[in-house]
Amino acid sequence: MIRSSLFAAAILLGFVTTANAQNAAAGEKDAAVCRACHQIGPGAKNAVGPVLNGVVGRKAGTYPGYEYSEANKSSGITWTPEELNKYLANPQKVVPHTKMVFPGLKNEQQRKDVIAYLSQFNEDGSKKQ
């Protein structure tokens, strides 16, 4: 009986964890708002915003050929998932005077999903294996 209860609890915990985990497929849909200014994937080019290939782990203000605001270049931020989560919630609060005028994604699960989506891409735009 105890063994069955523990097994059932472990399965339930697995479902809850999976439901709250990042979802790259959902993040791809949520990232549609990002594509108004940013490109990602093979052949991506700088646009209104810099290319997002390899953004997770990259130092802020360093994508080649993009003219960043001084605020972004001197922010000292490295785009870890945690930093991206804060930034995507409210870019102007995290980096005052950034050129990014996006008001932010207020839903934390959407931010996590977008970060999971972005995390799939290498610097060259290919998807990680």
Overview of the structural elements:
The chain is mainly alpha-helical. The chain has one domain (23-119): Cytochrome Bc1 Complex, Chain D, domain 2. The protein is 43% helix and 0% strand. It is built from six helices and no strands. The chain has helices at 2-20, 24-30, 70-73, 81-89, 91-94, 108-119. Residues 4-19 have low confidence and may be disordered.
Number of helices: 6
Q: How many E strands?
A: 0
Proportion of strand residues: under 5%
Summarize the helix and strand pattern as letters: HHHHHH
Largest sheet composition: none
Structural class: mainly alpha
Taking the alpha carbons of the first and last residues, their distance comes to 42 Å
The CATH class is identified as Mainly Alpha
Fraction of helical residues: 40-55%
Give the rounded overall mean pLDDT.
88
Radius of gyration: 17 Å
Tally of structural domains? 1
Uncertain residue segments: 4-19
CATH topology: Cytochrome Bc1 Complex, Chain D, domain 2
In the CATH hierarchy, the architecture is Orthogonal Bundle
Shape: globular
CATH superfamily, by name, is: Cytochrome c-like domain
Brief rundown of the structure:
By secondary structure, this protein is mostly helical. The protein contains six helices and no strands.
Relevant terms:
single chain; 129 residues; mainly alpha; Cytochrome Bc1 Complex, Chain D, domain 2
Write the topology of this structure:
Blueprint: H1 2-20, H2 24-30, H3 70-73, H4 81-89, H5 91-94, H6 108-119
